[in-house]
């Protein structure tokens, strides 16, 4: 504090961090175009949802056999990706792994967007969404559905808090620096900065709250995916009736979430010109993390398919043969190979952990993760224990209708829009934490 | 124009139908199938159960065995299965035909069990005049009667049901009807349970007496719905009598929805699961609200600087 030249130097660095991170929020050409594009897609697909609302779920490909179709596969996928918030900012954060600092906010933004849309996907899967509140009023404690609704709401709340709380110092900077922004945003910054001026007591108080939430989100994050797996595992259906489905889903969620984060990191790094903050080192570390979670997931896959495949119980045999060599073989094997095994092999080498290659590999992992959910949900439903006699052809062959695909596009576009808007109004890389990490001292003026 | 279409359509239908029925004529039974033997003996019990199966599955087309009252289908009517012309073939041949079907004759390969099929053959064989050793179904040697009456007498202590079948002759006398099979049934949740036993044919006094099973449950007072009828309507039309009697085992039915269980309603959820849910929600949301409360205090801390 008393050494003047050092103070000057650090001040300059903090100014640079501030400038670099706040710049994309003030002027970013092309962003309007991207938002306009998303809004167009959303409005077109909203019409598809309107048709579904008007004419009922008959417009989808879902019938008596496959009553959980594309929508539930999407739901499981969205829930899976949202788990990245817990993985990065909570588990790694609690372990005091400091390279996650610049990417933790992107992880939280992805978590908030995806879990919010996951909740919405369930509502969009309902023929009568006006009755959604009945789940709360009349829900049975024995049903995983009540637990799922509860745990998703809770996870969304904690994720939002874990997005906002660590951002309070940055928002205090935004309040002061972003003079030309809209009055509404100024008000948002004013409220959400909670009068923070980085006094030692405020700093201590804030970090205590954040730590509490980081611990709290671990059981809730595990619960959100375990309960989602119980929606399946608490039935007797072949392929779902397994005890490892809970940890299997959690492991799969880490893979999907990490992949989504790498893709997000890449796009923010390139578009927001954040090469100095989201560095090659971060991609390298994320690549190693990806190999670790993929290996865990591979281990669970081995258990999930090898053990029943060895026994080939009646009922299981039809399901497994359909997956291994039958109708679903292409989807099943491509998700296993492109979404898990090949990425592990590639990411072991350092050159594939460079930003562009790892981003492309992550896109494959994400696509594989989505296909995997589709293959978990639908094939099981096609083989009921008590088949219907003289069942109509369209009951035993599910394919999503154009309406369903449009509504699916809607949910993906909505998640992207939420991420875009959050990244536009909030700094995507923590300013103060980055400075803290680099040992740069700073002051936040009131 | 319209008529032409109609004529063509009817000709077409006629052709299809004729072809399918005509095909039924030339049975092609493989030699291996012909050699098959009926593994069941021609006991009264087997003949009787074969008759029941026959009445349900075969009678609607073939009519009563030996009576020639089959459905008059064109161009070929179904055979009288009790006629000597039919019974000249071996058991294996009949068995094959029941299994495969042809033309208008449906296949029973999957709809009847092997035992059922052999029972039907046993029953049909009882009409065979060439088979001396086979027992004939109890011959009806009753006079022509009218006003057939079925009377039930139930002994509650010994749980015995006695049914008496009688009719009035032309002379005006009420006589017992002998050798008629009766069905004694108890109503259960899904349909009737047959408790007739092996030998429910009326004796020379027109009586059938059966022992009601001691372990058959009734309602709270032991009430059961009994139905006694002449098995074959062909003799005297439909003759039956039903009665509610308290010879069942009194039982207190338990509604599985009344207990606390995983399958119960929300009000009947197991205590531990309610506690886990409510406890989880309260503790997690308690911490969330605690954090929110601490958050509100943050602005105040700006004032008391150092």
Automatic annotation (TrEMBL), chain A:
Subcellular location as annotated: Cell membrane
Superkingdom as given in the UniProt entry: Bacteria
InterPro entries recorded: NrfD-like
Transmembrane spans: 31-50, 70-94, 106-124, 144-168, 213-233, 245-268, 289-307, 327-348, 360-382, 402-423
Gene Ontology terms: cellular component: plasma membrane
Predominant subcellular localization, coarse grouping: membrane
Keywords for the protein's UniProt record, in alphabetical order: Cell membrane, Membrane, Transmembrane, Transmembrane helix
Keyword Disulfide bond: no
Claim: rRNA processing is one of the keywords in the record: no
Similarity field: Belongs to the NrfD family.
Name under which the protein is recorded: Polysulfide reductase
Organism: Labilibaculum filiforme
Lineage: Bacteria, Pseudomonadati, Bacteroidota, Bacteroidia, Marinilabiliales
UniProtKB/TrEMBL annotation, chain B:
Signal peptide: 1-22
InterPro entries (alphabetical): Cyt_c-like_dom, Cyt_c-like_dom_sf, Cytochrome_c-type_DH
Bilayer-crossing regions: 271-296
Entry's Gene Ontology molecular function annotations: electron transfer activity; heme binding; metal ion binding
Domain of life: Bacteria
The keyword Lyase is annotated on this UniProt entry: no
Domain spans labelled Cytochrome c: 45-128
Keywords per UniProt: Heme, Iron, Membrane, Metal-binding, Signal, Transmembrane, Transmembrane helix
Protein name: Cytochrome c domain-containing protein
Upper lineage: Bacteria, Pseudomonadati, Bacteroidota, Bacteroidia, Marinilabiliales
């Amino acid at each position: 504090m008393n050494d003047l030249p050092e103070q000057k130097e650090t001040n300059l660095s903090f100014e640079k961090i501030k400038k670099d991170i706040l710049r994309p929020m003030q002027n970013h050409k092309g962003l309007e175009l991207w938002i306009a594009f998303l809004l167009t897609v959303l409005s077109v697909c909203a019409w598809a949802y309107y048709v579904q609302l008007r004419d009922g779920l008959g417009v989808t490909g879902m019938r008596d056999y496959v009553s959980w179709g594309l929508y539930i596969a999407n739901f499981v996928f969205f829930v899976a990706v949202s788990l990245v918030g817990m993985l990065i900012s909570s588990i790694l954060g609690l372990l005091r792994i400091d390279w996650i600092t610049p990417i933790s906010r992107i992880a939280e933004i992805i978590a908030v967007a995806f879990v919010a849309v996951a909740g919405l996907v369930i509502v969009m899967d309902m023929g009568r969404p006006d009755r959604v509140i009945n789940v709360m009023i009349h829900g049975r404690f024995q049903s995983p559905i009540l637990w799922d609704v509860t745990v998703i709401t809770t996870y969304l709340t904690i994720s939002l808090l874990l997005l906002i709380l660590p951002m309070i110092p940055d928002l205090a900077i935004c309040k002061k620096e972003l003079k030309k922004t809209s009055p509404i945003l100024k008000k948002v910054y004013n409220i959400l900065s909670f009068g923070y001026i980085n006094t030692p007591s405020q700093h201590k108080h804030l970090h205590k709250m954040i730590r509490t939430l980081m611990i709290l989100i671990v059981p809730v994050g595990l619960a959100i995916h375990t309960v989602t797996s119980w929606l399946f595992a608490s039935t007797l259906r072949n392929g779902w009736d397994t005890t490892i489905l809970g940890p299997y889903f959690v492991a799969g969620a880490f893979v999907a979430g990490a992949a989504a984060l790498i893709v997000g990191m890449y796009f923010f790094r390139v578009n927001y010109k954040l090469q100095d903050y989201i560095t090659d080192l971060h991609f390298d570390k994320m690549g190693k993390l990806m190999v670790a979670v993929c290996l865990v997931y591979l281990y669970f896959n081995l258990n999930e398919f090898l053990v029943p495949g060895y026994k080939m119980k009646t009922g299981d045999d039809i399901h497994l043969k359909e997956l291994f060599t039958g109708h679903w073989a292409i989807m099943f094997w491509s998700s296993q190979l492109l979404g898990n095994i090949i990425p592990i092999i590639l990411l072991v080498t350092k050159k594939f952990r460079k930003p562009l290659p790892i981003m492309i590999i992550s896109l494959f992992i994400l696509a594989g993760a989505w296909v995997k959910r589709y293959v978990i949900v639908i094939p099981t439903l096609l083989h009921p224990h008590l088949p219907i006699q003289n069942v109509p052809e369209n009951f035993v062959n599910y394919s999503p209708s154009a309406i369903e695909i449009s509504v699916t596009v809607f949910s993906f576009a909505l998640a992207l829009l939420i991420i875009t808007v959050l990244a536009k109004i909030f700094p995507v890389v923590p300013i103060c934490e980055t400075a803290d990490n680099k040992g740069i001292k700073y002051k936040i003026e009131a | 124009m319209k008529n032409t279409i109609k004529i063509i359509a009817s000709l077409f239908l006629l052709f299809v139908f004729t072809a399918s029925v005509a095909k039924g004529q030339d049975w092609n039974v493989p030699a291996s199938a012909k050699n098959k033997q009926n593994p069941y003996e021609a006991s009264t019990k087997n003949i009787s159960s074969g008759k029941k199966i026959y009445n349900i599955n075969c009678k609607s087309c073939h009519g009563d065995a030996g009576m020639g009252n089959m459905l008059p289908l064109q161009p070929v009517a179904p055979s009288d299965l009790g006629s000597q012309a039919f019974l000249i073939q071996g058991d294996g041949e009949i068995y094959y035909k029941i299994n495969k079907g042809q033309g208008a004759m449906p296949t029973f390969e999957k709809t009847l069990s092997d035992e059922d099929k052999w029972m039907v053959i046993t029953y049909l064989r009882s009409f065979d005049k060439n088979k001396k050793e086979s027992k004939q179904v109890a011959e009806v040697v009753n006079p022509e009667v009218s006003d057939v009456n079925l009377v039930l007498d139930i002994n509650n202590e010994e749980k015995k049901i006695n049914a008496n079948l009688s009719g009035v002759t032309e002379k005006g006398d009420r006589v017992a009807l002998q050798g008629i099979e009766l069905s004694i049934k108890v109503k259960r949740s899904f349909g009737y349970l047959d408790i007739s036993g092996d030998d429910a044919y009326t004796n020379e006094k027109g009586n059938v007496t059966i022992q009601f099973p001691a372990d058959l449950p009734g309602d709270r007072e032991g009430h059961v719905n009994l139905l006694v009828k002449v098995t074959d309507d062909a003799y005297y039309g439909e003759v039956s009598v039903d009665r509610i009697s308290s010879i069942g085992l009194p039982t207190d039915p338990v509604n599985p929805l009344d207990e606390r269980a995983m399958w119960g309603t929300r009000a009947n959820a197991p205590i531990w699961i309610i506690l886990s849910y409510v406890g989880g929600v309260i503790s997690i949301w308690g911490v969330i609200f605690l954090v929110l409360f601490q958050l509100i205090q943050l602005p105040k801390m700006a004032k008391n600087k150092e």
